[in-house]
TrEMBL record:
Entry similarity comment: Belongs to the cytochrome P450 family.
Signal peptide: none
Protein name: Cytochrome P450
Cofactor requirements of the protein: heme
Sequence intervals crossing the membrane: none
Keywords per UniProt: Heme, Iron, Metal-binding, Monooxygenase, Oxidoreductase
Pathways involved: Secondary metabolite biosynthesis
Keyword Iron in record: yes
GO molecular function, one term: heme binding
Annotated heme binding sites: C436
InterPro entries, A to Z: Cyt_P450, Cyt_P450_E_grp-IV, Cyt_P450_sf, Cytochrome_P450_monoxygenase
Length: 497
């Protein structure tokens, strides 16, 4: 089978669907891997974190970027970290963040408007000049990935840390620059990066990718240290907050845990910095990619974009958290985007002991016999859980499973199987002890940004119809065939008042 290093699109290997729900394939450098998109198998593996750990190569990569935070912690350390940070991602906490998210989304709309109105402004214009056919009066080619990456960093800063990271400001921002440079080198050097993550000896080679990771982590730790110092000084020099209803933000909770007396409730300085780095990196890159995918789907389906804008314009300019979540087409559009293009198209686990994987769909063994209920798996096996294959399977989503159709959710029987996940019958945020802790924040942010931008702008496919595809590595991101670097070029025009 094709090598798994070829992450050309979101589905990765569409022929998996034709070959069955579970099978074996050769990973990069000959490593044998079991792959599955059987929802029962996936759910069992994700729930059994004591048996199924994140693959060593993935953990090694994430640790280089974010340190010893929630993405890499295991066992008791992971449970302790989650318990401390969980309150910052509760529904109550997210509701308190809504005004800050709207403020940043509106600033983003203002900056985008300036870019559309003035051709001399290059802040968010695509670094590739528009082709002659893409020069359209009243509109402009804009790289929405560049804009959304800066926006989501600022949202994390404002909503999570009550500070302005200033990523949206026109001047170069060291944090954004280091993250984007690291992502570009990782994606450009995919094979080298994968080899270094798989084999510890190769990991010692100081490649361009490794240097970029070190630079990025150093910058994230610098920002984290500044946030910690400023907040600690503010708390030390102020009286106790009289507002008992104030919801503590992420930084409050982390600093409180940093000074806790009980060891099982305490986070070390390194762990606090790692948590902040994790939120800065994972909380911005994944959400930015999803917003870009959503805007592109709307650009390709102007009828749905028009209907969604009509729904938005019939609502107050800054709706409440409850009103925002009650908008049916907005909810369905976000859900359909996450179904087709999840931030992580797959996740790989390895088992710490001999075990069995329960199956809902029988699989044929190597000797030709059918394995009906459970697949025996030896210790140390690698299992790839293909989220995208499950979320594009016609047996689950209908015959138009490959198409963008938010109206599919009007059918209460969709999805036709129980999917292991946190929201919307989707596996996009996975499930189990290691599910995405920020899923509520991500949903609120995606909805608020979409709501705000569609009130002011129309998004269209460029007349030159660039071949945009999704590439998967440390995260998924859009690229254009024949051009280097991540980007989401769209034609943007103002909506007439």
């Amino acid at each position: 089978m094709a090598d798994l290093a070829e992450y050309r699109d979101t589905v990765m290997h569409p022929d998996w669907v034709a070959m069955g729900w579970t099978g074996r394939c050769q990973h990069i450098m000959g490593q044998e891997t079991i792959w599955t998109y059987d929802p029962v198998a996936m759910g069992s593996i994700l729930q059994s974190a004591d048996v199924w750990e994140r693959a060593k190569n993935t953990e090694r990569l994430l640790r280089r970027i974010t340190g010893s935070g929630m993405l890499t912690a295991k066992g008791a350390a992971h449970r302790r970290q989650r318990r401390i940070v969980n309150p910052a991602f509760s529904t109550t906490a997210i509701k308190a963040m809504v005004p800050a998210m709207f403020e940043k989304a509106e600033l983003c709309a203002t900056l985008l408007g300036r870019c559309v109105d003035d051709d001399s402004l290059e802040s968010f214009a695509s670094r590739y000049p528009p082709k002659p056919e893409d020069r359209v009066p009243g509109a402009r080619k804009v790289d929405m990935l560049a804009l959304c990456s800066k926006l989501t960093q600022d949202v994390i800063g404002a909503a999570g840390f009550n500070t302005d990271l200033e990523s949206l400001r026109p001047a170069d921002n060291p944090l954004d620059n280091s993250i984007q440079y690291m992502l570009n080198t990782i994606f450009d050097d995919t094979i080298i990066s994968m080899g270094q993550n798989l084999y510890w000896l190769l990991d010692k080679i100081p490649t361009r990718t490794r240097r970029a990771m070190k630079t990025c982590r150093t910058e994230m730790e610098r920002v984290s240290e500044r946030l910690m110092t400023e907040r600690a000084a503010k708390q030390e020099g102020s009286v106790v907050d009289a507002d008992e209803d104030k919801v503590p933000d992420m930084l409050d909770l982390l600093l409180k845990a940093n000074s806790a007396e009980r060891e099982d409730q305490r986070l070390s300085d390194e762990e606090v910095r790692s948590q902040l780095s994790t939120l800065l990196f994972a909380g911005s890159t994944t959400t930015a990619g999803t917003i870009c995918s959503l805007l592109r789907f709307l650009a390709l389906h102007p009828d749905i974009q028009a209907r969604l804008r009509e729904e938005i314009e019939a609502t107050e300019e800054r709706p409440s958290f409850e009103t925002l979540n009650a908008l049916p087409l907005l909810d369905a559009t976000v859900r359909e985007t996450l179904r087709l293009e999840p931030a992580a198209t797959c996740t790989v686990r390895t088992n710490t002991k001999d075990t069995v994987i329960p199956l809902s769909v029988p699989v044929r063994g190597r000797d030709g016999t059918m394995i009906e209920k459970a697949l025996p798996v030896a210790k140390g096996s690698y299992v790839l859980l293909s989220i995208s294959s499950l979320q594009r399977h016609p047996d689950v989503w209908g015959p138009d499973a490959e198409e963008f159709n938010p109206d599919r959710y009007k059918d209460p029987s969709i999805p036709k199987m129980n999917i292991p996940g946190m929201w919307g019958g989707l596996a996009s945020f996975i499930s189990g002890p290691h599910h995405c802790i920020g899923w509520r924040l991500a949903l609120a942010e995606i909805k608020i940004v979409t709501f705000t931008l569609l009130r002011h702008f129309a998004f269209e496919e460029l007349p030159s119809k660039p071949d945009i595809f999704i590439v998967m590595n440390v995260a998924s991101r859009p690229e254009v065939k024949g051009e280097s670097g991540g980007q989401m070029p769209l034609l943007v025009r103002r909506i007439e008042a």
